[in-house]
Model the fold of this input.
Amino acid sequence: MNQLNLPFDNLIVKIGVTLIAGISSSLLLSSPIYAGTLNKNLIVNGDAEKGQGDPIGNAVGASIPVIPGWTTTGSFSVLQYGAKGFDFTTPTGQPVSVSGLPDANSPGPVNRGQNLFYGGGERGSSSASQLINVADIASIIDKGKGAFNLSGWLGGYTTDLDSAQLDISFLGQDNQSLGKASIISPTPEQRNNTTGLFFQSNKGVVPVGTKSINVVLNANYVRGRVNDAYADNLSLVVTKVPEPSSGLFLFGTCSVMIWGLRRKRS
Done:
């Protein structure tokens, strides 16, 4: 399994951030809503396997595959692993061949299936979103006992700077933001200028009062003929924080008693 766990606190992709921020807020009103369940992946179709993938890599407009479970903007698409690529001509008349897209041998998840998420066949940022209702597990969250694990395989194409970022926003009763968490794809330098996807994760505690979680997969375009931001096997799991073990409590009590007896004898 190819994994790359890297710090991204200092990574700032300036191009397209303003656009994505506007897109993310508007998507909250139109994203499909799903019910959340404890100990299960809350993201619907997080592996891009529902529906068809683009076998070439340049689908635009009506040719973009339908992506069940997600509301999309721009040319956000689903790509088949091993897509054959395409040829195009630059504005200066130079012919260029796009090949070497992610395939079965590229760095990525072992259980990668047939498809992956893809920024799309146009020059521009894009995104996909969905809204998860966690009312069924609110009793656990409101006690501060809901722990989340956000993970996914994110990547890009050779030296291209296009990047994928998975954002989750914890929303209260009136959709006010209670907190956010993210994972982002490695830079070309961090992935040694190779085409592929790499595992990223983030963990924490779900803020008290959270009633829904907005999930947005942003494909941030920087340059190139297409948006080469890639993502696959996206996961968001909420679990209950374990209660203190009674056995550990008993051990601590016994330790205190033994210490007291020894002190009394001395």
